[in-house]
Amino acid sequence: MKIALVGIGKIAVDQHVPSxxxxxxxxxxxxxxxxxxxxxxxxxxxLDTMLAENPDVEVVSLCLPPVPRFEYAAACLRAGRHVxxxxxxxxTLAEVYALEAIAxxxxxxxxxxxxxRMAKGVQAAKAALADKTVAxxxxxxxxxxxxxxxxxxxxxxxGGMGVLDPGINALSIMTEVLPSAVHLKSxxxxxxxxxxxxxxxxxxxxxxxxxxxxxxxxxxxTWEQKFTTTDGTIVHLSEGGNRCVVDGHEQxxxxxxxxxxxxxxxxxxxxxGQSDVDLSPMVHVSDIMTLAQRQIAxxxxx
Length: 302
Ligand code: NAP
Hints:
Helix content is 33%, strand content 26%. With 302 residues, it is α/β, with parallel strands linked by helices. The mean pLDDT is 97.
C-alpha cells in the first residue's frame, strides 16, 4: 500500500521512515512537511495538494505533535484515506471521538497508535497477569527531555502534556497489561515557573498502583513497571516494556520492534476494514490534569 507521512520531524526520521522501508506491506509515496523531506520521496508543503495529486495514497500516517494533528487527520479521513495517529492521539479526548465518527462515516480505518504497547515484553506481562488480581504496583518513567525532545517547545505549551507525553507511553502499557482497570485517586504535578506543562508527576491509582514520571533524569533512563499479585507473582517490565521477568524468570518476548509492529498492525486493520482507537491511556492523563495538586518547579530552559 502507498502511504504518505505528515510531519517529518524527530520521530518520523528516527522510527517511521526506517520501519516503513523495512516492511513489504508499505511504500512511502509522499511526505508533507514545512521543512523536512525524505530522500527520493516526493515532498509537499501542503496536505491538500498532496491528497489531490496522490489519489492512490491509501494511508496517511500523522507524525506531528498532537495540537495541530486534528485538522490534518480530519482532512485525510474526509478524503477517504485511512489514518494512523502518533501518540497521544489528540490534544483532547473530544477531538479523537470526533475523528472516530468521521472515520466511521467515511468507512475508513483510524488507528490511534501506542508504540510502547508494542514493546517486545508487553504481551508476556499481560499473559502473566491475566486471571490474577494485582495487590500492588509501581511505574517509574524517568527520562531526559533534553535528549528525547531537544528544543521542542511544543511539549511545554498547552496541549503538549509535558512529562505526561512520555508518561502516556507508560500508561499505554499499564492499561494493556493490568487484568482489571484502575483509576486515579490523587496526583501531584510540578510545572516549571516559566512553562505551561508539568516536568514531574506523582500519581496514585486504585489497587495500590503508583507511578512516578520525571523528565529531568540524566544518565541511565528508567522505564519500568512492577506488579505484585495477590498470589505473590511478581511481574517486572523493564527497558520500556521490552524485557519481561516473572518471578525472576526471563520471559520469551515478541521479535518485532515497536514501530514495525505498529505498521504491521495498520496493514492488518486496513485489510480487515477495522479501526483501533483505545483512549484509556489518555483518559488517565485527562484525569491527572483534572485532579492533580499543582506545584511550581524551577524554570526550565534547554
Ligand atoms: P517534532 O520533531 O517537534 O515535530 C514533528 C513534525 O511536526 C515537525 O517536523 C514539524 O514539521 C511538524 N509540526 C510541528 N508543529 C507543527 C504545527 N504547528 N503545524 C504543522 N506541523 C507541525 O516532534 P516529534 O518528536 O517527532 O513528535 C511528534 C509526535 O511523535 C508527538 O506526538 C510525540 O509524542 C510522538 N513521539 C515522539 C517521540 C520522541 O522521542 N521524540 C517518540 C515517540 C513518539 P514541519 O515544521 O517541517 O512542518
